[in-house]
């Protein structure tokens, strides 16, 4: 029966839709109210297939980044060009959107467990646990779950594995790309760490202009590009390559200054 249909991970789709609707209504004003989200590239989303799509993004908060993407993705697929009129796009959501998240984060409290039901693919980090540096082998079941999600929908991942800027790209993302050959869509966000705390739950400052740039598919030669090649392409695509710390083109500096001015004076 349609009412009791489950996704590929065994979660009830109707429950996921209800949760996304409720959480979407609650969070909407964070991106189109007392804060504002400036979006570029929404039209790109409308031409993507229903599955085999991997979104790669820089990371600024645990939850606000993903919540914003769910708003934007569903608004775009409902022919919206912004996040106004949320009832129109939140009542017709794409249920096979998943996101990769650290297992310890998603099981830390009741609220994060609820967020998990929205579409989290939980993985055990191989380099960090409970705030400490660790070194442990990759769990093949984690890789298998990400591959399953890619085969059945859209997957959001943060290849740095941390909210700290300019940290190294984890090679696991490159391996997943090379193995599964998805369409890779880079997303660059900014302003989220100014608006929210690190978890993305507490409002740190109102009147913040946030930005999200959705870029065209990343050109990847799945057969001939090495893991190192793909890592470097990811670094540049999500604007986290080490070179970008030192040198920015004059046009980019002027663009950032203009955005900073907008953020400074934007009011709700």
Please describe the topology of this protein.
Elements lengths: L12 H15 L8 E5 L1 H4 L7 E5 L6 H14 L8 H5 L6 E6 H4 L3 H8 L2 E4 L4 E2 L2 E2 L6 H13 L1 E4 L13 H10 L2 E8 L1 H4 L13 E6 L12 H11 L5 H4 L3 H16 L3
Parallel strand pairs: 1-9, 2-7, 2-8, 3-4, 3-7
Antiparallel strand pairs: 5-6, 8-9
Report what the structure shows:
By secondary structure, the chain is of the alpha/beta class. It has one domain (2-265): 3-Layer(aba) Sandwich (Glycerol-3-phosphate (1)-acyltransferase), CATH 3.40.1130. 40% of the residues lie in helices and 16% in strands. It has twelve helices and nine strands. Strands 1-9-8-2-7-3-4 form a seven-stranded mixed β-sheet, with helices on both faces. The protein has a two-stranded antiparallel ribbon with strand order 5-6. Helix 8 crosses helix 10. The longest helix is centred in the last third of the chain and has 16 residues, at 250-265. The model is unreliable at 264-268 (pLDDT under 50).
């Amino acid at each position: 029966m349609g009412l009791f249909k489950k996704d590929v991970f065994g979660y009830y789709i109707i429950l996921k839709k209800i949760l996304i609707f409720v959480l979407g209504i609650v969070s909407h004003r964070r991106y189109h109210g007392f804060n504002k989200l400036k979006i570029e590239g929404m039209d790109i989303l409308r031409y993507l297939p229903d599955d085999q799509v991997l979104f790669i993004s820089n990371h600024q908060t645990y939850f606000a980044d993903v919540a914003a993407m769910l708003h934007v993705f569903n608004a775009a697929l409902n022919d919206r060009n912004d996040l106004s009129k949320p009832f129109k796009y939140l009542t017709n959501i794409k249920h096979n959107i998943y996101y990769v998240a650290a297992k310890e984060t998603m099981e830390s409290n009741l609220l994060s467990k609820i967020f998990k039901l929205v579409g989290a693919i939980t993985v055990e980090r191989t380099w960090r646990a409970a705030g400490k540096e660790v070194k442990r082998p990759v769990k093949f079941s984690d890789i298998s779950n990400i591959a399953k999600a890619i085969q059945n929908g859209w997957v959001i991942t943060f290849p740095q594995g941390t909210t700290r800027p300019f940290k190294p790209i984890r090679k696991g993302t490159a391996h997943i790309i090379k193995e599964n050959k998805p369409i890779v869509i880079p997303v660059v966000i900014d302003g989220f760490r100014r608006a929210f705390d690190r978890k993305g739950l507490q409002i740190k400052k109102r009147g913040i202009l946030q930005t999200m740039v959705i870029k065209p598919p990343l050109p990847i030669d799945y057969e001939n590009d090495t893991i190192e090649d793909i890592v470097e392409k990811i670094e540049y695509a999500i604007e986290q390559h080490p070179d970008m710390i030192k040198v920015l083109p004059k046009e980019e500096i002027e663009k950032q200054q203009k955005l900073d001015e907008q953020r400074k004076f934007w009011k709700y």
